[in-house]
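Reminder to self: tokens first, then the designed residues, so the page reads top to bottom the way the pipeline ran.
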């Protein structure tokens, strides 16, 4: 039997954390390994417990979810982050996705849908509602990235495909037998050549232009 998916809950409302835990404790393949009430504690626990998936609120006192995501990305923590939010505005969700979130669900999500979302992001998928995907794609297309795919080297295309699969730099390095420093250089070159701002835009570009795996 496969190891359960280890999940960390990060939300400043204890009632919400309790509800999420209740949802998840009945799932045979999901294990809640810890809880945090703010972004700073969430980052610290993510480093200590090394969960597979973090359920992260956006609006929290002190360090919010977006800043916590940036910290995890800077630390190259391999956990996949799923935003759990009651906010539907693009200005709230899009920054979280740009900071490295693998997707988001709403706090009133059906328990089965929540479990399915966790399994999906753990498998490397990105969960985007159509309206948010449209917003991200429109920003990507407003740049000059279209038509520049031919400037990528074969190795850069391989890295781009793995970015689209949701792989971290560490995972890409292992897959391609490279150092993490080399992977970071390739990622920087990809963003520069395609005139894209971040990995989310790169993943969307790869899907749109058939460069995803």
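Designed residues (213 positions):
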């Amino acid at each position: 039997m496969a190891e359960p998916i280890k999940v960390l809950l990060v939300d400043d409302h204890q009632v919400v954390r309790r509800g999420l835990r209740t949802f998840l404790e009945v799932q045979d393949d999901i294990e809640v390994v810890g809880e945090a009430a703010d972004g700073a504690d969430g980052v610290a626990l993510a480093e200590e417990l090394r969960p597979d998936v973090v359920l992260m609120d956006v609006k929290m006192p002190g360090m919010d979810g977006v800043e916590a995501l940036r910290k995890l990305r800077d630390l190259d923590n391999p956990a996949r982050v799923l935003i759990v939010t009651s906010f539907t505005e693009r200005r709230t969700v899009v920054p979280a996705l740009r900071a490295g979130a693998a997707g988001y669900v709403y706090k009133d999500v059906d328990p089965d849908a929540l479990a399915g979302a966790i399994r999906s992001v753990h498998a490397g998928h990105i969960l985007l509602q159509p309206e948010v995907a449209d917003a991200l794609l429109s920003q990507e297309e407003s740049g000059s990235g279209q038509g520049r795919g031919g400037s990528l080297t074969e190795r850069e295309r391989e890295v781009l495909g793995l970015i689209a699969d949701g792989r971290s730099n560490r995972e890409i390095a292992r897959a391609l037998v490279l150092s993490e420093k080399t992977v970071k250089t390739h990622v920087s070159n990809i963003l520069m050549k395609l005139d894209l701002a971040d990995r989310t835009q790169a993943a969307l570009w790869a899907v749109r232009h058939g460069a995803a795996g």
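Strands lie at 5-10, 30-36, 53-56, 80-85, 103-106.
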